[in-house]
Amino acid sequence: MTQQKDQMKISVLASGSSGNVTYVETEKHKVLIDAGLSGKKIETLMNSIGRTLKDVDSLFVTHEHSDHCQGVGVLARRYGMNVYANEGTWDAMSKKVGKIPLDQKYVFKCGSVLSLDDLDIESFGVSHDASEPQFYELHHHDSSFAIVTDTGYVSPMVAGIIQDAEAYLFECNHDTEMLRMGAYPWPLKQRILGDTGHLSNEDGANALMSVIGNKTKQIYLGHLSRENNVKELAHLTVDHMMRDHDFAVDHDFYLHDTDPEKATPLIAL
């Protein structure tokens, strides 16, 4: 029973182009990564997994786009959470999030590691059209959970940092043909397809195959575009590509879908 209690637990509360929130807990800390929905919606999602925002002590922000920071100010003011982001993100999102008490604002430098008792959070930069985008790998004892959702590509540096995590939340933003044939104006299509845009289903699969290892048990496919992807297509694409490269999907590890409106079950790593 003691071992079960001391495991890191995770739930992707919401993931998609409309809003992103991920919940992680250890015995000593309960944290959120991003708050891209209203405070009320995030509380509802937390309640759906048997948790409450009142217990969350820290919030880590990846970048200033609204689908990642919409609820940051509200949660900080209402629940007294400490908020962590790098200087570029703080500067870029300050008007969006409103006033946050100074003693709750922390600068988390890109490329550094923050230790909170039994939880270590490692930050790393990604290639996205934001001020100073960074994502996180969370470590608890021998378990780790890496989050990479808004990036045009996965650099060798990032791949090295997140190698052989036990769990991943990984971007599969769009199906390339759906995007090319869709209604988006060409400049927006170019932005999404570019090096500072988003990973396609194929890009996500290829990047995952370069980083997963023997420890990897759970993979969440995230940040799907409502207009340029469907859950089943993303899942099938990643599944088929991995099986074609002799990865033992549903044996060595499991692929999970995420949703912009519904939280994934809280699981222990």
Automatic annotation (TrEMBL):
Gene3D superfamilies in alphabetical order: Ribonuclease Z/Hydroxyacylglutathione hydrolase-like
Superkingdom of this protein's organism: Bacteria
Ranges where the Metallo-beta-lactamase domain occurs: 18-223
Pfam families associated with the record: Lactamase_B
InterPro entries tied to this protein: Metallo-B-lactamas (IPR001279), RibonucZ/Hydroxyglut_hydro (IPR036866), WalJ/YycJ (IPR058121), WalJ/YycJ-like (IPR052533)
PANTHER family in the cross-refs: EXODEOXYRIBONUCLEASE WALJ, METALLO-HYDROLASE YYCJ-RELATED
Name the record gives this protein: Beta-lactamase domain protein
Organism field: Ligilactobacillus ruminis (strain ATCC 27782 / RF3) (Lactobacillus ruminis)
